[in-house]
Design brief:
The strands form 2 sheets. The protein has a two-stranded antiparallel sheet. It has helices at about 1-10, 15-20, 20-45, 55-70, 75-80, 80-90, 90-95, 100-105, 105-110, 130-140, 145-155, 160-185, 200-210, 210-250, 255-275, 275-305, 310-320, 330-345, 350-355, 365-370, 375-395, 400-410, 425-435, 440-470, 475-495, 500-510, 515-545, and strands at about 45-50, 50-55, 185-190, 195. It has a single domain (about 1-290, about 310-555), classed as Amino acid/polyamine transporter I. Mean pLDDT is about 75; it is low at about 110-120, about 325-330 and about 400-420. The longest helix is centred in the middle third of the chain and has 39 residues, at about 210-250. α10 (about 130-140) crosses α16 and α15 runs antiparallel to α25 (about 475-495). It is globular, with a radius of gyration of 24 Å. The protein is mostly helical. Its main location: membrane. It is a multi-pass membrane protein. InterPro entries: Na/Ala_symport. Belongs to the alanine or glycine:cation symporter (AGCS) (TC 2.A.25) family.
Amino acid sequence: MKKYLLTVLTVLLPIITFAQDKGLDEKVNDAFMPIATWWEGFVLTRVPIGEYNIPFVVILLVVGATFFTVYFKFPSITKFKTAINTVRGRYVDIEKHGVDKLYNNDEALAIEDIPDTIRDESAHGEVSHFQALATAVSGTVGLGNIAGVAVAIGLGGPGATFWMIVCGLLGMSTKFVECTLGVKYRDVGPDGTVYGGPMYYLSKGLKEMGFGTFGKILGVLFAILCVGASFGGGNAFQSNQAAVQISTLLGLSGGSNGVIIGIVLAVLVGIVIIGGIKRIAKITEKIVPFMAGLYILASLIIIFANFSDIGFAFSLIIDGAFTPMAGLGGLVGVLIVGFQRAAFSNEAGAGSAAIAHSAVRTKYPASEGVVALLEPFIDTVVICTMTALVIIFFNINGTDAQSVFNYTAEHGSSVILNSNGQTINGVDLTSMAFDSVIPHFSYVLTIAIVLFAFSTMISWSYYGLQSWKYLFGKGKTADMVYKVLFLLFVVIGAAATLDAVIKFSDAMILALVFPNMIGLFFLFPKVRQEMKRYLTAISIKKEAIQDGAEDITKHM
């Protein structure tokens, strides 16, 4: 460990001068901006539908999520209880040993198995269901929940919140599909190390269906995009926002502060990521409940402080979703804003979370699929909705619904005002909304943002590393090269304002949707088979216990 950290520090120190050179920073921005603009435009290619040009990637996400929701009979509702019980460890006995070994019944393992693809189905894996969920949630819960909701409301009005919730509920089905496949097609090394994610189920799953070359191309494409996203949107942007918040909180100024903060962050991140997924999981299972609990508690305080306005706030959300002042065109616009912001927030369809979930200890892939569907629920349905309510309470400020709609009709839905008539948006709007009820909560929010950024960085380091391994092999040297590069971007992101690079990298995260969703449309029948196996195993367990067999879960 000391040797690795020394190597990292040796590489980081020479870049201090580079990172502080504002002239060089501006040159990088000027040179890279045309590329970033082209890439963003390519990823967000728009399709004309009526009066609106809708990004094709949003259409792909919505159509795919809706199809999976209907095909799997609304798993966000019907499998929610199973998901909770799985996270709680109610079925850990059958997941570890197999229902056939526990209760002498091989029915669950025999269902629709394909002889040519049967392999060792013992409970490989490195982390628990809860740890895998915490790691994946830490990669999505972040600034999208704090600033992204404010942006959505600023662009689409309160009604955008409704469509964010709908997108979150639909996204639960997509997460269920991709994370089940992530476990089913993962690789397990001789030492028990797990390698999984879309690049594996794209290559192995499509090869199984006779599309080997096509699957390999999609797998490589996904891995390249994922490495780029991990350096930018999952790293540099996060460290940059954390450094800005820390500097603001401490009242710091000057070019060297970002470098110093970046090096501190890089050392802390390095200590975690060098330990691999087990250490990442141990950290995230502690940070995620704490930061999410802190944020939810503060939101609940504000919601209950405005208890009498809750009905009014939801009427604004629902009325704004279906009867915007601009008519049908406004309805389409609000819907697009809500779905696009939710897609950025929970990343359902991007496939990134499947990398973390694939490391779970289980022999039933669908057990982690049902756990994964909780992720968009936590991220979008719960946390984003609470943020929206806080912002709406702050903006209505005693006015009535008609006044809000009249102002929106006159000035446009992109205008958000506080009681002083100031136009505010983004993280500042969220911060002021909290401060209006809980004085000085902006300081606590700063801590939350830093924790969000830290947990997102360590989660994305794992996503990027798994993709790097897929491209360049699974040796220790390749691992260390990636980790050093990742920590390099932590410092650069904190010290610089590389807007073009961040713009480019954020588009890379959305670009993951294309290879991933193509694979999901081919492979979703495999998920149905795995779900049937898992539910049958649970049913056999329940019947065995009713017949007098012992449930070993209580002894574990």
